[in-house]
Design brief:
six-stranded mixed β-sheet, IrrE_HExxH, Arc Repressor Mutant, subunit A, alpha+beta, three-stranded mixed β-sheet, TransReg_Diox_bact_type, 434 Repressor (Amino-terminal Domain), 9 strands, 20 helices
Length: about 500
């Protein structure tokens, strides 16, 4: 596998550092013997500088190693795991700097315990194989971590949206229209917008849209899209251009994921689209009215969808932007579930702020708790299928977790999917009930809100009398059996 020039410098720096330490030389001592400045040697070891031939000769003579061995990409046996890590181009694919990590610093830390590192890396690789982890899953997990680091609020994008709004919509009230977005895409970016562009593409029926790039880009849409879905699709294209985002995906759903930067740019364009559709100042006032009601009023949320012509997911995402920033409600999660039948519910998107909340998507091949509002609302959608009701449903619940003090207020929205465009899905926001949350959400104690005892999955749940159970509690039973064995062993060894 070809190795990048950056990683060549990192490998060279690792070798110089290892040889210097083996000889017990400080930077000052090595500087004196080679004639190279201590700061320059430090830059070499950090992988930031790669010396010219004459300087490499001085290093090889002082460190008593041949020129060829010093410039070789082969590392010593102790550092071999690091070499494999670098040759995998992991540091090129993962944006460590985005999280405040310099690759050289990470390698420095890892190289201090190379034997343990080798076992650690092997374990990670084995886990990833056993659990079917793919690189795109890693990128999406990193995106969630990035969102959580910033409380899912990005001032620079908010400012870019308002500048754009002033330029193109200064005297125009929302909701904006298909024709307005189409005009901007056409006149400013030379787009051809084709609302029925995917109509005869049988293989692309699951997609909402795709973009064909070029000097005159084409935006092809699925004719089954609702008006709000069309508006989001076009607003997202405007986001890509306004924020100068590249690289980017060209399909609405992920067909392949090429880099973390592509995943991040897709998120930024979506953020732009939601912020454009739901202006911060206006939606904050609407949310204040909603949260200050003493009784839960779902119509206030549904009215927001109508007022701004946005999808349920757009509204929920906007709430995750603004609840932490404006209302101080930082302990929350967002979930999106999809289903195509009565038995299978798939967690297709999640985000957690201020820690990993229940529920979360770590339950491989297990059955998520059927008492969750996110799943109950999907079951209700299916039961009314075919009766002509295609309006958005809203459901609220207080969820108390088994063997936990955590209690969440869950608000879920769902609407039947358009035929031939994916599955039914629900989106939910969960707010951890804390003193701060109680001060802002006046209806949290509304007696009409059902309180349900819930758990993560059926397989881990001790509630044997649960009428909604979808699978035996075999993982819970195994854990109980193991705990009983541990107690028996402890009793015998302390007699």
């Amino acid at each position: 596998m070809a190795i990048s020039q950056e990683n060549v410098k990192l490998i060279f720096g690792l070798k110089v550092r290892q040889l210097r330490l083996e000889k017990g030389l400080s930077f000052a001592q090595l500087s004196k013997q080679t004639g190279l400045s201590a700061s320059y040697l430090n830059e070499i070891e950090k992988g930031k500088k790669y010396p010219k031939i004459e300087k490499i000769n001085k290093l090889s003579e002082t460190l008593e190693v041949s020129f060829d061995d010093l410039v070789s990409l082969q590392l010593s046996k102790k550092l071999a795991p690091l070499g494999e890590l670098l040759q995998s181009n992991l540091f090129k694919e993962l944006p460590l700097e985005l999280f405040g990590i310099e690759p050289a610093h990470l390698l420095d830390l890892l190289s201090n315990a190379p034997a343990k590192l080798g076992a650690f890396l092997s374990t990670l690789i084995e886990i990833s194989r056993n659990y079917g982890l793919r690189v795109e899953s890693l990128y999406l997990n990193m995106l969630r971590s990035f969102q959580e680091m910033h409380d899912n609020y990005f001032e620079s994008i908010e400012e870019a949206v308002e500048t754009f709004r002033t330029q193109f919509f200064n005297d125009i009230s929302y909701p904006y229209t298909f024709q307005q977005f189409q005009e901007i895409l056409s006149s400013e970016f030379n787009y051809q917008v084709l609302p029925n562009g995917l109509e005869h593409q049988q293989e692309l029926k699951p997609l909402r849209s795709m973009t064909i790039p070029g000097d005159a880009p084409q935006l092809l849409m699925n004719p089954k899209l609702t008006e709000s879905q069309k508006l989001f699709t076009m607003a997202k294209e405007l986001g890509y251009h306004n924020l100068s985002l590249s690289p980017r995906p060209f399909t609405s759903s992920w067909i392949s994921v090429n880099s973390f930067e592509e995943v991040l740019n897709n998120y930024k364009a979506s953020y732009f689209a939601c912020a454009l559709a739901l202006p911060e100042k206006a939606i904050v006032e609407d949310l204040k009215n909603f949260l200050s009601e003493p009784k839960f009023n779902p119509n206030l949320l549904l009215d927001i969808l109508e007022t701004y012509q946005c999808t349920p997911e757009m509204l929920m995402h906007r709430m995750t932007n603004l609840l932490p920033k404006v209302f101080g409600i930082k302990e929350l999660f967002f979930l999106r579930f999809s289903t195509s039948n009565e038995e299978t519910f798939k967690l297709t998107k999640e985000m957690h702020l201020s820690g990993l909340h229940n529920p979360h998507g770590t339950a491989l091949d297990q059955h998520y708790c059927r008492r969750w509002a996110s799943i109950e609302i999907l079951k209700e959608l299916r039961s009314q299928a075919g009766d002509g009701q295609d309006k958005v449903k809203c459901k609220v619940q207080r969820s108390q977790y088994v063997n936990s003090d955590n209690e969440y207020l869950i608000i879920s929205l769902a609407k039947p999917s358009n035929k031939n465009i994916g599955q039914n899905s629900s989106v939910s926001i969960g707010l951890l009930i804390t003193p701060a949350m109680k001060r802002k959400v006046k209806f949290y104690s509304d007696p009409v809100i059902p309180i349900r005892i819930v758990n993560e999955t059926c397989e881990t749940c001790p509630l044997y009398d649960c009428q909604e159970r979808a699978a035996p509690a075999h993982i819970y039973e195994q854990k109980q059996q193991l705990n009983a064995m541990k107690k028996a062993v402890e009793l015998l060894t302390h007699q």
